[in-house]
Amino acid sequence: MTPQTTSLSPPTVVVDVGPLSLEDVVSVARDGAPVVLGDQAVAAIDRAREVVDGLAAAPTPVYGISTGFGALATRHIPAEMRAQLQRSLVRSHAAGSGPEVEREVVRALMLLRLSTLATGHTGVRRETAQLLADLVSHGITPVVHEYGSLGCSGDLAPLAHCALALMGEGPVRDASGALVPASEALAAAGLTPVELVAKEGLALINGTDGMLGMLLLAISDLRRLLRTADVSAAMSVEAQLGTDRVFAADLQAIRPHPGQALSAANLTRLLADSGVVASHRGPDCNRVQDAYSLRCSPQVNGAARDTVEHASTVAGRELASAVDNPVVVGDRVESNGNFHGAPVAYVLDFLAIVAADVASMSERRTDRFLDKSRSHGLPPFLAHDPGVDSGLMIAQYTQAAIVSELKRLAVPASVDSIPSSAMQEDHVSMGWSAARKLRRSVDGLTRVVAIEVLTAARALDLRAPLTPSPATAAVVRLLREGGVEGPGPDRHLSPEIEAAVELVRSGAVVTAVEEVIGELA
């Protein structure tokens, strides 16, 4: 999912020996920010290259420099064949298949590989790292395919397609999005392909950059989406004549999960000064408890928040890592297992569970609006003339179909492993697969929450002359101004759903609320 981008040129991101931030990655991936190598990074790259050159000249075989790769690592490669070795490695590993991966994912992947090169632990030459930075800055995006990575030895095939472009080979998308040969795109940008030398091919393809890039983009999206889910939950509590007393801070404090407290605080603020809530606060109200999907929304949305922040902690560690094999450490080069994607794969799968469960609760709140036996006086399916009109009946079907898909996507990829490379790589993470399905999960959650917002807004209109809170009224107003009409006879519903989806995806729903009550937690 891609939020709306600003028309202003984003600031240049400096890639140095220190870790990038999530904001850096989003700026480059989505907003097209250019990148430059920092001075410390250039010095670290040069130092590591001196080590590699020294080992390449020595008679003793060193893995990744003067040997074959994977199960073929036992063969010593003579000096005159090492350039061919690097070309062969990249060409053979660029074996992806299937649809093109999204531009933002490939840009994130390229930036994160550059970040690892900048640590001075990979042994590439300065000009190779610079060309990768130049591709990012010129908006040249190699074509990477959906299938090919097992998430161990990193994202080999996706990264190999990017390395292929550095060699002036393979297809790329230029800054305008046109599909052109890499050689043409580089020439048009005034760039010269590199001829890879010892160690460089392996250094360009042996990382977790694809799965990490998708994790960082998902974290950014989910943080916004979970605030939006608090908004949709508040609208549903309000329009279903629920109580806000269960969200009181002292009730949350006796179960001190931080995300729960933040979510409940949001709900309290969102429902403040609601005429609808005030209308049933008196002694005549005979309802004892609200349904779980209303009463427990801070517990679910809050747990989701805490899970996202756990994933952010893991992502931060990975951003601070140099993922390659072998790595340059001091004056030596050592093999290691840091390319294994398990840490990233686990949290990618965890976030797919979060997306499915938050969406499941959202769908349950929507369904309550449409059932006249549970909607507390609203017309069946919120229809204008029930029987003649079906109202939002099938919007809930759409939600249910998406939630069912999200539950399937929540089945973890990281528990699977298929050995590869003649059993040399006998356990793999499947982290790339976990990342790909999480992107679909985030999109699905966006759509489910948007339909709840659309439904709750219609219900609030139907509660007139009772007035919603200033915060939820701002969301209703946003929808009405954004192409989502209020109650009335049936009309073509799909365009209105898509309009609501875009308002959620872009962050406009959260912005509308925050303009009234200040920043949400």
Automatic annotation (TrEMBL):
It is found in: Cytoplasm. One of its GO terms (cellular component) is cytoplasm. The modification 2,3-didehydroalanine (Ser) is found at S153. Its EC number is 4.3.1.3. There is a cross-link at C152-G154 (5-imidazolinone (Ala-Gly)). It is an enzyme of class 4 (lyase). GO terms for biological process: L-histidine catabolic process to glutamate and formamide; L-histidine catabolic process to glutamate and formate. Keywords: Cytoplasm, Histidine metabolism, Lyase. This is Histidine ammonia-lyase. It comes from Nocardioides szechwanensis.
